[in-house]
Here is the input.
Amino acid sequence: MNLKLWISLAVGSLSTAAIAQDSNELVIDGETLVTETAAPAHLEDFDTIYSGWRFRSRETQALETDDFDNPAFVFVDQGLDLWEEVDGSAGKACASCHEDVEDFAGLRTQLPRVQDGELVAMEDLVNGCRTERMGAEPWKWSGGNMTAMTALIGLQSRGMPVGVKIDGEAAPFWEKGKELYYTRVGQLDMACSNCHENNYGVMIRADHLSQGQINGFPTYRLKNAKLNSIHARFKGCMKNIRAEPFKEGGDEFKALELYLASRGQGLSVETPSVRN
Amino acid sequence: MKRAIGLAAIAAMTVSAALAETVAPTNVTLADGVIEASLTGQPGDPVEGRKVFANRKQGNCLACHVNSDLSEEIFHGEVGPPIDGVADRWSAGELRAIVTNSKMVFEGTIMPAFYIDSGYERPLEDFAGKSILSAQQVEDVVAYLMTLKEE
Here is the structure.
């Protein structure tokens, strides 16, 4: 960790964990990321949106500020290997068709998006290339290969503002996602909004509740020491309230993903982020 | 040997007597924010109730309520109001109603209803048709809450 960073962390730690979202800045490689900004107009009950990074402890935050310390980069490197790796009946790798992974700068900010009347997530695009262009097996939605690849591709957009399209063809998907966000489920009978809209900033037992933003995915979690997909996180939150999760990669979670992305419009892509 | 069997038989009788008087979740009458009668027909055990309050797989009340009486537990949530002195603010019948079905007392609350076995959507299979707490556990928690007095 460099000295400047150490100082900013030391100053930041004067405030308590509970108000972490009001106090500090995320600087990676000299670039300041937007972790706090005005809420998009469609969010009626919110003035300000915050990245989940703002709610983590100093120690966890620090891991994301330097790519050498960020444990997610082990997986980004795996993603780079996979990028070059020939697989499938067509004898191709990603690199056979895409000149440079950097060409994907900006893609993360737009997903999920509607193509040919369907809502597609980054995982769909990756598997589309694998099955249709490479003649390879699709990867599991939240499997290690997939999260390594979505981390590598997402990283190319780091620092760019989330900006998904929610009108026109996207509108019905967005509406559906919104409805899911506010619907109570599970034996504990809670909606995403109960925790992430009405109670962000407070402790729920050992966890500091954030706004449940998805700008940092896939996320490296200290809890399971691997990259976690957006849908795997949704699944985890549903299971915690003893609800039967929707299917990873299914219509419900993709709609929810679009809606959640839209709640974070303007936050910087932080991929790959570190959380606990 | 004989004596042991005798005791077991008596214990079994007590259990079935208690079961006979237990009010099923669907039969609970909650009127004006109060449930007067014990759900088991008997007083709860505050010592057990204290455990249910803290246990993550049971009440996990501590996930949302700060409770000075449980200072040995490090993590106390802040989603709900601190529970200290709760018996000064509410009667046993009111507390029983809050724990049984908080939504009948606080409209739109995030606090789960601990003694209902239907009316929620998409439960995980293991929990379908079940209440979070048993009638006995609700009574134990209520008995425990009644010990939390400050005045």
Summary: The domain at 27-274 of chain A is CATH 1.10.760.10 (Cytochrome Bc1 Complex; Chain D, domain 2). The radius of gyration of chain A is 18 Å. Chain A has a mean pLDDT of 92. The interface with chain B takes residues 18, 183-190, 194-195, 198-199, 202-206, 209, 239, 242-244 of chain A (CB under 8 Å).
